[in-house]
Amino acid sequence: MTGFAPLTPPPRLLMGPGPINCYPRVLSAMSTQLVGQYDPVMTGYMNETMALYRTLFNTENQQTMLIDGTSRAGIEAVLVSAIEPGDKVLVPIFGRFGHLLAEIAERADAEVHTIEVPWGEVFKPEQIEAAIKNVQPKLLAIVQGDTSTTMFQPLEDIGAICEANDVLFYCDATASVGGNPLEVDKWKLDAVSVGLQKCLGGPSGSAPITMSQKFVDVVRTRHHVEAGIRDAHHESARGPKIRSNYFDLGMIMDYWGDERLNHHTEAATMLYCARECAILHLEEGQQNVIARHKVAGDAMLAGVQALGLTPFGDLANKMSNVVGVVIPDGVHGEQVREDLLLRFNIEIGTSFGPLKGKIWRIGTMGYNARQDAVLHTLQSLETVLRKQGMSLPAGAGVDAALAVYSGAMNV
Ligand SMILES: *Cc1c(COP(=O)(O)O)cnc(C)c1O
Predict the structure, then answer these.
(1) What is the chain's mean pLDDT, rounded?
(2) How far apart are CA 136 and CA 126, in angstroms?
(3) Does the Cβ of 119 fall within 6 Å of ligand 1?
(4) What pTM, to 2 d.p., does this model score?
(5) Is the peptide bond before 24 cis (omega within 30 degrees of 0)?
(6) Mean of the pLDDT values across residues 382-403?
(7) What would the pLDDT profile of 351-370 be if each residue is shown by its tens digit?
(8) Could you tell me which residues come within 8 angstroms of residue 100 by beta carbon, excluding any fewer than 6 positions away?
(9) What is the best residue among 97, 318, 321 to mutate for testing ligand 1's pocket, by most ligand atoms within 8 Å of CB?
C-alpha cells in the first residue's frame, strides 16, 4: 500500500483547442510491448512511419520523420537546425504561436523580423511578399492555424513568393494538420512540423516533421557526427555546429537513415502512437477526415450562433476545427468553464494574450469531431449559461447543429 490510487481520471470530453481525447486504437497502440531500437521490427516501424507521414503531408520528401517531444520540439528542431547566428528570419504573427516562432528563432540567435495583423485576421500574400522584399530573410516561419485566435492562414500562394526570393519556407501546422488541407509539395513548403494532439487524435509527445531537399542541403552544410560514434568515412563538419545536440536534424536524419547512427533512444511508445494516428487518418481517407472536421466545426458554429452567442474573428478564415466564442457581458467566463468541467465532464478552452477573459475556444478535433460530442457540448453550454441568468432559446443550439448534420450526408 503506497496510499496512491491507481490512475482513474474522470471520463472528460475534451472540447478545447487541444489536447483532445485519443482515438481508442491509439490508446491500444500505446500499451503495446517494446522492442529494441535497432531490432529490424522497430526499424521497419520507423520506415513505415516515414512513409505514412509522407502520404499524410502530401510530399515525396525522403526526410520525413518524428522528433521526440511535443510540437514545439519539432519547431525548435527546424529553427535551430536551419538558423546560423545572425541569419535573418521573417515571422508574420497573427496569434500566440507566431510569437512563439519568433521567440524560438531569437533564442537560435537569428535576426528576427516580424510583421503583425490584429488577432482575428490573417495575412494577404502581398503583405508577406512586401516584407520578404524588404527584409530579404533566409527563412520565413509562419503558423498555418493558430489555435489562440482560431484563424487559418492560406499558404498556397506563399511558396512561389519564397521560391522567387530564395527564402526557405517553414510552417508550424500543428493545430490544422488533418482537419484542414496541407499540401507540402504543391505549396512548395521546405519544412513543416506538427503534433498529434489536435486533429490527428493522439496525445502530445511526438512531432512529425518533413523537410525538402533544399532545406536538407542547408542543414547538411553543418553536418557533424559525434566523436564517440564517428568512423573514418564521416566527413567533419563544414559550417558552425548546430547549437542543440538533441534537435540537430543532421544527426536525427543519420539516425532515421540507412546508417542508423546512434542518437537518442527512439521513444518507441510515441512512435507506435504516431504510426497509429497516421494509419487511422489514411484509412478513413484524408478528404473524409477533412470533411468530418468541416461538418463538426460548421455544426458547432451554427449551434453557438443559434444560442445568440457571437463567434470571434474573421469567419472566412477560421480553422474548421475550433471556434472562438465571445464571452457575453455579465457572464462569468471561468465559472462557465468550471461548471462544464465539474458538472458535465466537458472541457472547453480559455484564451490568452489580448483575448484573455474575452473568448472561450471550443474545439472539434480528431476523435471528438463527432456529432454526439458537438450536441452534448452545445446542450451543456446552454444549460450552464441559463444557470448564469442568460435567457436563451431552448434547444436552439442543438437544433441548429442537427440541421447542419442532416444537410451533410454520410459524415
Ligand atoms: C497547439 C499548438 C502547438 C502545441 O505545441 P506543444 O509543444 O505540443 O504544446 C504548437 N503550435 C500551434 C500552432 C498550436 O496550435
Answers:
(1) 96
(2) 15
(3) no
(4) 0.96
(5) no
(6) 96
(7) 988 999 999 999 999 999 99
(8) 72, 75
(9) 97
